[in-house]
Amino acid sequence: MRYVRLALILMLLPLLVSCAGMERVTFTLITEGEHHLTAGEVLPGEIVIGGGELTIAEGAKLTGSLFIVGGRVILGGEVDKNVSVLLGEAILTPSARVGGDLQVSGGVLTLAEGAQVAGRLVYEPTSDETQSRSPGRQVATLVLSALPLSVAAYLSVRYRPQPLQRLRHALTDYPLASAAMGLLGLVVFPTLLLLMVFTVLLIPAALIFGLAILLGILGGWLAMGLALGAALFHRLNRPVRPETSAFVGTAIFLITASLLQAIPWLGLSFAGLAGILGLGALMLTRFATRRFIPAQDVDEDPLYVE
Amino acid sequence: MSRIFNLSLPLKWVPLVGASLFTFMMATGYYYNLTFVQLGLKDLGERLLEMEQATVALYMALLALLTCLVALGTGYLMKVRGWSRDFYFKLRLAFFVILLQTLLTAIAPGLRSAGAFLAWIIVASSALGLGVPAMFSMTVDLVPRRYRGHVGAAVTALAYFAAELASGQWVIEDFSRGVLWLMAAGAIGMGFLAFTRPPLIAQFANQHKLPAFGRGRFVQIDAHGQTHIKRRLYIIIILMFGIFFIDSLGFLRLLDTPVYMETAWQSPQLGIRLFIGIVHVIAALIGGILYTQLDEKTLFLWIFGIFTLVHFSYGIDARWGGNAPLGMPMLYAIAVSLYTVVNFAIWADVSTPSDISFKTSLGVALSGWTATFLSTALAIQWMGAGMGLEDHLRIVNAFSLLFFILMLFILIFPDAGQKRSQRGAYPEQVA
After folding, report:
1. pTM score, two decimals?
2. In chain A, N or C terminus with fewer CB closer than 10 Å?
């Protein structure tokens, strides 16, 4: 998810910059490694940090805006325009100067005393931070955040059940194939999206493709909810309508996923695995348009005594 | 669901031991091919014998061509004489090949003239050519049809992981030392199995008669008991040729570009080579699972698609000054592992025990060795003509894209005019 989000942000940025109506746009994209801007150096244009580390020493200057969507930036010098922190980490030392706004909508910001921001300091707390304020509100937020997708699962199963059923079938009957396919997609698709953006011509196609994948992954989550609900009511021996089971299952799945986020590695692993399985099921069913049937005959297994 | 592990049922040990034996035999053979043959000989010619790069490439092309011819001849002879079904014959031939290759490996670092190198190449290509039908055709005796993808994955994972970790410096002395003890042990073991004929071997020898072993996955039998595969076999050979050709043509150039080799496959940092090795292992496992679950055309589409992405990425990187991010060799490793899994599984799946020796030779020789021969010759010509890295990669990328589009076309219009086989990834389409 993070990579898809990162890819989408990176795809959107050139579009947003191009909307400014300038004749020529220069931007620098940093994705890995350590980079240093020493005193006296001036870097023109916008800077996008997707990974790695950038150190801007005191006396160094950026003439454009700085977008941090991953990696780490240590700012001791001057940025003429805005600094936006979407993901990653930004450290503003006492000598840092920001000519425009400092916007933080994710990631980590360390603002030393003495650092100057000429414009506004816009700080949008992340959902995790919001939730940590009160336990009651946290539970309510948890349930409410699960509601839209649960309703979507309910409506989907009620009015157009085939796509979700195809995804559920691939997920529950062929989890290994779904995982393998999902893993392959996870590695290949971000690269593909990024390269499509580099061609410029394919930016609209990349956007559509990226959105389709995101929607598909959401569909995968709903399918997992559907499978969970069906298994749960079957275990309880309580027959309910499929849409009700889908609603309950999706809600339980999403709430569990949110709760697990509190446990660092487990939460990430659960979300990652769910995303990979969902993406894999989506690809096996060709975006939920076909029921997946494996190519090979399931013939007698010569390795086991039946 | 594809079942790999079933703890509730007792295992049958004979097929398991057979599949394991095949895995280690093929993994060793492929490791030898990856390291000693493909990289060691290049080093021998260029560094120890101080030959021109183009001359060494010519010798390598000759090796590929001779191997191809010997493999085709041996495979055909085995088919017409009925040796293709004879496990004992294949075992003895494999023993002879391993013994010969062990001797050749031992003397290779000591070669001191171009003439001796040429003679060595001729003998080695004969050994390799004999080895292809002998070893590959043991698949029908040792590997059950439903596990061919998994066994292919194990072979690929073992060979590439070992090759990545084995040596940071690609010199023939290291390669020779690395494989010699393995091959000597293999020759002794193979000799024991081939000539003492323990009871286990008798059981292996009859396995190809079982329904779960003999006939390949893609071989269909009509109402008269005749097997049909020809058209599909030719398509698979063409596609595999395309993959080998693209891989070889691209990698030959990367091999001569230090920035891409020293930051990846030849990195002095063990961590980077370990990372690539792990990527190979994971991709091989993915390939093994997907081989049994997907239509082979879908798998080919993925492989060509990834190769297109890889060469496009290298092309862009070369234009932007060669930052060589690790993502590029990672994608390359994924594509290579996927197709290697297919290569180890697919030839048995288009064959029957009677014709596997010839079809395997046809497949491996025509796709693998011919592609290597042609790509080597082409790369020499391009380098001689002064073609730059960027242009070279752009042409390789164009080939990848061409095959990718061809695969898309085949998938969108299956069998163009003919009804698609009832068994496939998406039989709903047929209905």
Report:
1. 0.78
2. C
